[in-house]
Structures
1.
Amino acid sequence: MNNPISIAEQVYWIGVNDRETALFENLWPLDKGVAYNSYLIVDKKVTLLDTVKINKMELYFEKVRQVLGDREVDYLIINHMEPDHSGAIKEAIHYFPNIQIVGNRKTLEMLQNFYGIDHPFYCVGDGDILDLGERKLQFHLTPMVHWPETMMTYDQRDGILFSMDAFGGFGSLDGGIFDDEVNLEFYEDEIRRYFSNIVGKYSGMVQKALKKLQGLDVRIVAPTHGPVWRENPKHIISLYDGWSRYEAEKGVVIVYGSMYGNTAKMAEYIARRLSENGITNIRLFDSSKTHVSYIISEIWRFKGVILGSCAYNTGLFPTMETVINKIENSALKNRILGIFGNYSWSGGGVINLEAFSERIKWEKVGESVEAKSSPKEEDFKKCDLMAREMAARLQDA
Ligand code: FEO
C-alpha cells in the first residue's frame, strides 16, 4: 500500500477511489469514478472525519490501521449522513467500540433511522469547539447543503475546512490528491456536474453557508470528494459562490430531441448562426445520447439555453422531458431561452417547451420556431433571427 498522505502535520487523507460503481446515487454516471475522502487527525485525541461507502470499507480500515497501528480512535465526526460517507459507521463502532460519534441533532436522528445505531453520541451546535489536544475543531452547521444535517468542521490550527460534499465532485483521484498535483480543468468540470445535479437546487443555502464561513481563515479545503485544495482554496470557494449565485459565462447550450433528424438539422443551423454572430462557446447536445447530468452542468455554466423538441405522441420527446424536469427541479435562474422544434401530425414539442418557458420565467429570445415534418426556408429564417437575438443579448449580458 502507498504511504499515508499527510495534508498537514498529523492530519491524513485516508480516502478511497471507487471505479466500480456505475451510477452515483443510482442516477449519475461515474464514467471517471469517484473518490470518497475521509480524514484522520492523530492528536492527543484521535479523530476520524466522515467514513466511506460500504463497498470500500475494507480498504478504508486498512488505511486507518496503517496510520494508527494499534491505537484507538476517540472521535468520529459525521459532517454528512449520506451513505457514501456514513456507510462504514457501523463498522467503525465495531473496530473501535469506545469511539464517540460527533454530530448535530439531525445527525443523531438519521443515525438511528438509517442504521439503528444507539451509541455514545456527542451532540454539537453551531460554533461549538472540540479540543483534541494540539488542535481545536470548530463546528459550523450548514443545513441543506444539501441535506438537513450537513455541517462543516474547521481546524483552527492549520485553517483546514473539512467541508463534506461542498467544493467536491466526481472523478477518482488518480495519483494526484491536491489541487496543485492534478489537471484542474477536468476536476472543475466534474465538481460543477456534482454541484449542478446534487447541490445546486439548494443554492440559497449554499450562499448562507458561504456567508457564515466568510470570517474563517481557510487555508486548506478538504471535501469528501475530489481534490484537496491547499494551493488555491479561494479558487474553489469562488467557483461555488458564482454557481450558487447563478452567474454564467458567455455561451450557448443547445439541446434537442429528434426522432428522424429534422429537429437536429435545425439545431445545427442555429449553432452555425450563433457562431457567425460571434459566439465561441457553443455546446450542442442530442438529449437521447448525452446523459442529462452533463447537459445540466453545461447549462449551469453558460447563459444562453436553446431547447428543441420534436413532438412525440402529442407531448415532448421523452429525453427532452427529462431535461426540462431536471432544470425545473434544480430551480436554476437567470438564463436566456430560445425554443424550436418540429411536428408531423400533431404538435406537442414546442407547445410544452413554451409552457416550460412560462413556468421557469427565464428571459426569452426570438419567436419559437416550429417546423412541420421538416424545416423549410421560412423556418430557417426564424432560427436565424433567434440566433442573432441570442447573440446580441449575450453581448450585453
Ligand atoms: Fe457525497 Fe451527499 O454525499
2.
Amino acid sequence: MTQKTELKWWQRGVVYQIYPRSFKDTTGNGVGDLQGIIEKLDYLEHLGVDAIWLSPFYPSPMADFGYDVADYCDVEPLFGDLATFDRLAAAVHARGMKIIVDWVPNHTSDQHKWFIESRSSRDNPKRDWYIWRDPKPDGSPPNNWGSFFGGPAWTFDPSTGQYYMHQFVKEQPELNWRNPEVKAAMLDTLRFWMRRGVDGFRMDVIGLVIKDAALRDNPINPHAPVNLPENDLFSRLIQVYNMDQDEVHAVIREIRATLDEFPDRCGIGELWGPLDRWVKYYGEHGEGLHLPFNFRLMDGMGIKPMTWDAQTLRGVVDAMEATLPDFAWPNYVLGNHDRMRMVTRFGGEAQARVAAMLLLTLRGTPTLYYGDEIGIPDVPVPPEKIQDPQGVNLGAERSRDVCRTPMQWDASPNAGFCPPDVEPWLPFTADYATRNVALMSQDSTSILTLYHQLLAMRQETPALLSGSYRPLDEGVPVDCYVYLREEGETRYLVALNFAAEGRQVLLSAFGQGRVMLSTHLDREEDIALDALALRANEGVVVALR
Ligand code: GLC
C-alpha cells in the first residue's frame, strides 16, 4: 500500500472555500444560492478540488452576512432550504467529494430565539446563555474591550439594565460557553449536520469562545498604529483576556469528541496568534482540531503583514515545519473572505501564479478561495455601496466587500453569475469579459489552467502529497525559494523565483531532471540542474532522476 492511501481525506484533499452569496445565483435576485453551487459542482470536480467549505448559509438577518446565525439547524431562504442542502450534500458525495460547513459557535444573531429569550428578563432561564454584566458605577461598559468592527464590545440593554458582550457587531451577542447547557446545545448542532452527511466544520473564531473568567480589562497596546479611526478601540488594546485562554482547550477536546462520534469527520478552526500558542489547538497528543487554520503565508508572522519576499515566505514554512509535532498535519491558506485577494496582496497575477504553485506543492492541506483560480483581484466598491459592517464602521479601506465579489463564469452581461437584468450584490472586475471561467478554461496558458494542472499533478504525485519537505540553500539566490519533496525513490524539486528578473539556480549535486510544470505553462523539458534558469516570477516543478 502506498503512503497516499493511508492519508485521511482531509490530509490528501484540497479544500475550496465558497462564499455562497457570490458563487452562482439561480433565483435572479443578484445573490448566489445553494442550487447555484449544485450547478457548478461539475466545474469544481473538473478543476480537481476534493472538498468544498461553505461560508454560512443559515437563517440570518445578515448583519454580518451570515456570521450572525438565527438558527443553527436550518437554511436561510435566500440560499434555499434543507432539501436543497440535502441535494447538494448528495451531489457532492456522488462525486467522491466532501462537504465542510461553517460553524459559528462564539455568537448568535440577536434574532436567535435563545437571545430573544435571554434578553427578555434577568431571570429568564436563558439569561446566562449569553454574557450579561452590570454597568460600572458610572454607567459605562463592564470592561474596556473593543469590538473587531469598531466601538465597545458591549451594548446596554435598557429594559433589563445590563450590558451584553459582542466582539463583532452588536447584532452578534456572544454565547456563554461556560454554561453547560450552551455547550450541550451547540454540540448538538454539530450532530445535526453530521447526521445530514456533513464531513467537517470550519469553526468561526473558535479561540474566542472562552474569555477570562473575571473579564479583566485588556492592557493598552503601546505599539498601536497611529491614525486609527477613533472608534477602533480594539486595535488600541493587546488582546490578552478576550481570546486564546488556556481553558479553551478543554472545550475543544469536547468538540473533537463530538466529531469522533461519527467516522472520519474533520475539525478546522479559525485561529491566529503566535506559533507556540497556535500549535496547542492540535491538542497535546492530537486530541484537538485536525487543522487549526494556518494563515501565516497570507498574514505573515504577526510582526508585519506578508510581503512578496522569498525569505519571508520560506521563513513561515520552515518555522511551521519545525514547530509541528509528528501527529500534527500542516495546512496553508492564501485567501479567504476576510483578507485582501492574493493577486492584490502579492502585486499581480505573475506573483499569484508562483504563490499558487507554493500553496499546492507544500506539505500539508491547502485551502483555496473561490475566484483566486481565475485571478480575481480586490474589486473596488464605490463608498456608497459598501455592505460589510467592518467597512461601514471603520472606513472603506477596511471593507471586506472587495474580496467577496461574484464569481465570473462567462463573458455575458453579469458574467453568468446572475441574470442580465439584475444588479449583482457586488460588482465584477472591469475585465470580466476576459477574466472568466468559460474563456480561461479554453486558454492553455491561463492561471485557471495552471490551477487545474497543479491540482492534477498534486493528486497524482505521492511525493507532493505525503513526501518530506526540505528547503535548499546552496546555489539558491536569495530571492528564490527552492525545496525538495521526497517520498521513497521519488524526488520532486520546486523552484520559485520571486524576483522581477531572471535568476539561475545552481544545483550541480542534483544532475538531471524534467520540468513537469512551469507557472508560465510553456515548458515541459529535460534540464540539467547545475544551471536551472528561471524567468522573472517563474516557478517550476521538476521531477528529479
Ligand atoms: C470570522 C469570519 C468573519 C466574521 C467574524 C465574525 O472572522 O471569518 O467573516 O465577520 O468571524 O463571525
